[in-house]
Write a structure and sequence with these properties.
The protein has 308 residues and is mainly β. The protein has 1 helix and 25 strands. The two termini are 41 Å apart.
């Protein structure tokens, strides 16, 4: 705790010095993404450009804490006290000073959230892309898969945890478009598995099987024993085609960075800096992005999903 107090003091001094040095022409700081839980059970996702928040602590007085160093702010019943948990695990109890409302930018526009109804704030790194809102879907209806059907996806501000049941963007998109994420598989539990990313046309029931007129990108492994990785693309119900010419080893626990660029007649996939391209004509004008982890006994983590 003494170390945290010393760090906070240094941060406050550095923030003042940096503010003087930046000058009026410096670019604003990147926004942070907030996950805000309200007293009535509601959950809001949005962005803020506020650099810091003031906290009054019995042991340290009033301090300005940079939001980027905070993991969670939890409020007691009646807002009598707040517990600030830092990214390094340290905690400080106190009161939030001088803030009656929090201004955030959401998918449905800018809003002001009254602090009196906030129970918890989770702070996540921001990105330069668009905010994405997800629907968690059940295991596809009508599927004849005989095995386990997994569990619902867990969606947070900067991470999606997938266990066999998909998520789908509430928004629809059109080419040209690019999106990126980091994807990691916990363990090689099933005999084969993949992260399944579908571009799905608007219209069909999202809870049914993905329609055949989709475009699918798969990252994963063919067989658990040989460690062979796969990166495939399929369109219009055709068999998946390997995008990579050279085999690669797929590792559990490793975060793979995927960037997918969608053009009217080309799909370009960049995996950890290596670019693969396929001349594929989109069979639709607008689409949703659906993401699923396969098989259902595998657990996938998809982090920092950003649409450009």
């Amino acid at each position: 705790m003494k170390d945290t107090a010393r760090i906070l003091g240094l941060l406050a001094a550095c923030a003042l010095a940096a503010g003087s040095a930046r000058g009026a022409d410096s670019p604003p700081p990147k926004p942070l993404r907030l996950e805000i839980k309200l007293a009535d059970g509601s959950l809001l996702l949005g962005e803020t450009s506020e650099p810091s928040i003031s906290l009054i602590s019995g042991g340290m007085g009033k301090i300005d804490v940079r939001l980027g160093f905070i993991s969670t702010i939890s409020f007691s019943e009646g807002q009598e006290a707040a517990t600030v948990t830092f990214r390094n695990g340290d905690k400080i109890r106190g009161n939030i000073a001088g803030v009656t409302a929090l201004d955030i930018k959401t998918l449905f526009g800018p809003i002001s959230v009254l602090m009196g109804v906030v129970r918890e704030i989770r702070v996540h790194p921001g990105g330069s892309g668009k905010l994405v809102d997800w629907d968690s879907l059940p295991f596809p209806k009508g599927s004849d898969w005989p095995g386990a059907r997994g569990g619902p996806a867990r969606v947070e501000a900067d991470e999606i945890v997938l266990q066999g049941q998909p998520v789908c963007t509430k928004q629809s998109f059109a080419a040209p478009l690019s999106f990126e994420c980091d994807a990691a598989l916990d363990q090689l539990v099933s005999e084969d598995g993949c992260l399944w990313i579908d571009l799905v046309p608007e219209g069909p029931d999202a809870e049914q099987n993905v329609p055949p007129q989709n475009v699918a990108i798969q990252l994963g492994y063919h067989h658990r024993g040989d460690g062979g990785g796969m990166l495939t693309l399929a369109s219009m119900g055709a068999a998946p085609v390997d995008m990579g010419k050279e085999p690669f080893a797929f590792e559990a626990g490793k975060a793979y960075h995927l960037q997918i660029e969608v053009e009217a007649d080309t799909i370009r996939v960049t995996l950890d800096g290596q670019v693969f391209e396929s001349k594929t004509t989109l069979p639709f004008k607008s689409f949703h992005i659906e993401v699923m982890g396969w098989q259902p006994t595998n657990t996938w983590h998809v982090r920092d999903f950003i649409v450009h």
